[in-house]
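Quick note —
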Amino acid sequence: MAGTIDQLIINAPYEEPTSHWRYDRESRTFILESGRRPAGYVVATPGSKSFDDPGIFVELPLVNRIRPRVRAWREAGYPGVTGTTLRLLQHWRDPEAWEERRFFFCQLEAVETLIWLSEAPPGERQGIEVPGDGGPFPRLCAKMATGSGKTLVMAMVIAWHILNRVANPHDGRFSKHVLVVAPGLTVKKRLAVLELSHMNRIVRHLWEAIRHENTLALTPVFDSEKPIRSTGDMLPWYTGRPWADTRRSHINRCVFDSTWEASEAFALEHHPDVEAWAKNDHLGFEIVYVFDGVVRKYRPDFLVRLETGITLVLEVKGQDSPQSQAKRAALDEWARAVTQHGGFGRWAWAVSRAPSDLADLVHGQATA
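Predicted structure written out below.
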């Protein structure tokens, strides 16, 4: 078919283009051709002053060589990528989520191309040399049309980078810094969707999904210098805080940070299901967890040995928060890993939200 364009939109936005309108410079007509339009741009004809100058098409050969390789890499299942990246790509292309959100083909291809350039095996990129500007680090540009969703692609790239940094901290391809340059007020306003608080929630959500779905086994990691510690390792220390003598604790006195802790300690001291207990103070018992992309540590409040032989890690907490939930998720994982190890007996954990719930909470763990 030749002549003028009688149908402007000839491809679906969610699929790779299968046809395009080619402009014939000599006849100044449009011809409908099968296949995707080659990447390129149009420049003015040298010396032309005509207002209807058809211009000259200049091909971008590097882009046209990369496109089919990315397609083949995609169809092969993205070989070479990290487990985190693979889970993200599958999440973005999940048909079951199309009712809530579905990405344009150009958005997915832009992200896939950047990932391909970073993670695909070297053999996949043989002969592809992206020229640089001589600066200290490579810079890649994904050229996208107005209205195609560049801000969303920026969010996808940031999520890809941050999640890989958390999951693969020693992989040199993922820096601990992410630089976002947003020229123009329009883009800066659109980046409001990427405010730190929102981004943190996105990262936490995706990180938890990726971590759980890619976990093959739980294995405890012990301190390389002193893998096993006990209350007997505790050295004398001094404090001006309130304290009380103990009978069932391996430590002769318990120091209280609040009246709530004092009430909990009193209840543990007299509970019939408790064989021994210790406040986790100067013991060095810490749980490692990840929150907002940062590896952190926290110290649970009490360690309790029940009459049944279970070691109960007891946390005293009132108001809940996303960070507290991250702590307890790590504690749950730690307790399951140590129990599966088998060398330290059975471990469990619980959260006391008020002094009045401790008696039933401990009894429930003792009879579980």
